[in-house]
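Hypothesis: this fold can be encoded by more than one sequence.
Test: take the structure tokens below, design a sequence, compare later.
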């Protein structure tokens, strides 16, 4: 297992999922992606997480993002649990869940952290761009459910900064001012960002979100 770092091409794999055999790169083709692991089926926090992801289907679609979940449980377990998720979370799981019983993908993506749990995956998240490169990696412990609003916020930031020479400041939310890339001199920034540039410091220049 090689360490996966930001900017690397997301390692490809073929896996058994609740929607049949899927090749990750073919599945992503032309889309952004979120690959995320959970520790185990039929557990409470994971049930709320996958239900939440299902409820955000339209939000992911708007952003051209495909999601794929993973745990080391088998296909039959996943199918049975999906019924519980749909019933208890009042939703309909409509994304594939990898049945990684042989841990091939978990090991490829370093999702098992033996000092936390030797057998189960932690709550890993990999956001992959439409160029198939890894854009974000986060890891949560089993006891803490993830904030999927935050993942949407990060995708908004990633997609904005992929196409405009800006970065997003602390706690940024879509619609708020953004930071001009430090590589652009202020005079040039004023030509590019026609909505205006505020120079707080020579290295800290703010501009309204350019793609609104
Ligand atoms: C849960 O999803 O609730 C959970 C799973 C594994 C360990 C602890 C909590």
């Amino acid at each position: 297992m090689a360490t996966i770092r930001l900017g690397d091409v997301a390692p490809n794999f073929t896996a058994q999922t609740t929607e049949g055999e899927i090749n990750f790169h073919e599945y992503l083709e032309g889309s952004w992606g979120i690959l995320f692991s959970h520790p185990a089926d039929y557990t409470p926090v994971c049930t709320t997480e996958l239900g939440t992801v299902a409820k955000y289907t339209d939000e992911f679609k708007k952003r051209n993002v495909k999601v794929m979940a993973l745990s080391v449980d088998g296909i039959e377990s996943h199918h049975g649990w999906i019924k519980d998720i749909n019933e208890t979370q009042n939703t309909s799981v409509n994304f594939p869940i990898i049945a990684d019983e042989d841990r091939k993908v978990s090991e490829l993506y370093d999702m098992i952290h033996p000092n936390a749990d030797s057998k189960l995956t932690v709550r890993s998240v990999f956001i992959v761009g439409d160029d198939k490169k890894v854009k974000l990696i986060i890891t949560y412990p089993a006891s803490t459910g993830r904030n999927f609003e935050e993942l949407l916020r990060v995708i908004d930031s990633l997609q904005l900064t992929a196409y405009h020479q800006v970065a997003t400041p602390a706690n940024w939310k879509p619609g708020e001012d953004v930071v001009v890339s430090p590589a652009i001199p202020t005079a040039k920034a004023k030509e590019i960002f026609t909505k205006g540039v505020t120079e707080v410091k020579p290295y800290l220049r703010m501009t309204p979100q350019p793609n609104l």
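The chain is about 30% helix and 25% strand. Residues 5 and 199 are 33 Å apart (CA to CA).
Hypothesis status: open.
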